């Protein structure tokens, strides 16, 4: 209760005006102001405030001509800062919960304001313990909690053993009885949205198509991945309700001119099938830059840059213990399994993926940022809340310095500031 009218009048409105900045709007960088509320954590209608309510901002933030973008979103992050979403620590659920919170607090400092914590193929007990801690974490709208989970991404274990990548073959499953097999595996209370937002599976496995339909009914988005599907099998997956491809090119058949495989979905558009969204790891290790260009040109509105990073992101080079007794060698961004030299994931940061994409494709800055803001938000059905500077969306923002060297030199976006729910949580200065 307010003590009196005067005090109420003196209360700060929490309105912030960003000025002298380039806003990322569609394909353009627009020289305009942006108004946000640190009280509601949302983006405001500047015109309405100026001319309707005649409210003066509490504070004006002059960005000195820098870029103001929606916060970055990573829909495939397996772990970071020494924590692995697929590994239950020795102290069990309590330690797991603390580890997730630690990732959230550190991740936001890199410009990633929301993400999908990702669990790889595991035995059922891992899902039963982990998934309850990975659901959407933004309900309290507390900026101090760091990056916000939008729900879990569950990758496997209903994937093809022929395309397992680093997933352990012995934990892989099929679902001949449809969704009931999945309920047993993940736990009935976990297999809903929330806590699960996205699920990667191989559509050619027994029971997979009926699972896709059941998952969609539960509000879970389905992505095709770690799959040996032919083009025809992949199309059936899309018809059943899948809307995305997990790390396109990796852990699937390569494009063949007589059997285009999963990649062929990017050339498909009909009344019954729309082109799926697709994740791309632009780390210079997983995919050749030219393949990325081809995919982007085939379906520019579907491309989502992901890190697929794991817990060694940010750690020094060396050999590290992995799960089930294997070990991983880290050299720069490259991670390989010691036992067979297979690519074992990535340790790249999302802003570096954006920078690689910028330099490899000649995409404009807004086009590159779209792949980590607007497009993932649309894929998740959250385009009015995340990944946009539209009025009413969450004020999750990054201030980016665009550094361009001499002619022909690398272009680079640097994360200068991060704002979560209208509150500044990181400043590089
Ligand atoms: Zn994978």
Automatic annotation (TrEMBL):
Keywords: Carbohydrate metabolism, Hydrolase, Metal-binding
Pfam families: Amidohydro_1 (PF01979)
Positions with a binding annotation for substrate: 166, 250-251, 258, 286, 343-345
Active site: 308 (proton donor/acceptor)
Signal peptide (residue range): none
Assigned EC number: 3.5.1.25
Catalytic reaction list: N-acetyl-D-glucosamine 6-phosphate + H2O = D-glucosamine 6-phosphate + acetate
Binding locations of Zn(2+): 155, 226, 247
Coiled-coil annotated residue ranges, if any: none
Co-factor(s): a divalent metal cation
GO MF annotations in UniProt: metal ion binding; N-acetylglucosamine-6-phosphate deacetylase activity
Cofactor-binding details, from the entry: Binds 1 divalent metal cation per subunit.
The Amidohydrolase-related domain, residue ranges: 67-420
SUPFAM superfamilies, sorted: Composite domain of metallo-dependent hydrolases, Metallo-dependent hydrolases
GO biological process: N-acetylglucosamine catabolic process
Listed NCBIfam families: nagA
Family from the record: Belongs to the metallo-dependent hydrolases superfamily. NagA family.
Protein name: N-acetylglucosamine-6-phosphate deacetylase
């Amino acid at each position: 209760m307010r003590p009196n009218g005067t005090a109420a009048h003196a209360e700060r409105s929490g309105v912030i005006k960003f000025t002298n900045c380039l806003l990322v709007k569609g394909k353009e960088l627009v020289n305009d102001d942006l108004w946000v509320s640190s009280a509601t954590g949302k983006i405001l209608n500047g015109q309405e405030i100026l001319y309707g309510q005649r409210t003066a901002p509490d504070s004006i933030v002059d960005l000195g001509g820098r870029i103001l973008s929606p916060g970055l979103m990573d829909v495939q992050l397996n772990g970071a800062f020494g924590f692995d979403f697929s590994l239950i620590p020795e102290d069990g659920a309590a330690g797991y919960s603390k580890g997730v919170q630690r990732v959230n607090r550190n991740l936001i400092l890199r410009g990633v304001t929301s993400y999908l914590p990702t669990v790889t193929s595991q035995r059922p007990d891992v899902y039963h313990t982990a998934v309850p801690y990975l659901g959407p974490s933004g309900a309290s709208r507390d900026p101090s909690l760091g990056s916000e989970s939008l729900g879990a991404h569950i990758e496997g274990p209903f994937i093809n053993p022929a395309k397992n990548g680093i997933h352990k073959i012995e934990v892989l499953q099929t679902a001949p009885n449809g969704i009931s097999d999945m309920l047993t595996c993940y736990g009935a209370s976990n297999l809903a949205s929330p806590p699960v937002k996205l699920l990667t599976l191989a559509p050619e496995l027994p029971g997979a198509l009926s699972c896709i339909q059941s998952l969609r009914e539960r509000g879970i988005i389905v992505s095709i991945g770690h799959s040996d599907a032919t083009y025809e099998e992949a199309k059936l997956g899309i018809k059943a309700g899948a809307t995305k491809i997990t790390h396109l090119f990796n852990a699937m058949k390569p494009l063949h001119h007589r059997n285009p495989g999963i990649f062929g979905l990017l050339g498909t558009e009909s009344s019954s099938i729309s082109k799926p969204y697709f994740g791309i790891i632009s780390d210079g290790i997983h995919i050749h830059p030219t393949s990325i260009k081809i995919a982007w040109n085939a379906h520019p509105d579907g491309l989502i840059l992901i890190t697929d990073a794991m817990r060694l992101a940010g750690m020094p080079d060396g050999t590290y213990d992995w799960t089930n007794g294997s070990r991983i060698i880290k050299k720069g961004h490259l991670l390989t399994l010691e036992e067979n030299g297979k690519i074992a994931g990535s340790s790249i940061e999302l802003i570096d993926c954006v920078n690689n994409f910028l330099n490899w494709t000649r995409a404009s800055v807004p086009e590159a940022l779209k792949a980590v803001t607007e497009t993932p938000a649309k894929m998740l059905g959250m385009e009015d809340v995340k990944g946009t500077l539209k009025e009413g969306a969450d004020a999750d923002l990054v201030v980016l310095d665009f550094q361009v060297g001499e002619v022909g030199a690398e272009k680079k976006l640097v994360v200068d500031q991060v704002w979560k729910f209208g509150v500044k949580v990181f400043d590089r200065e």
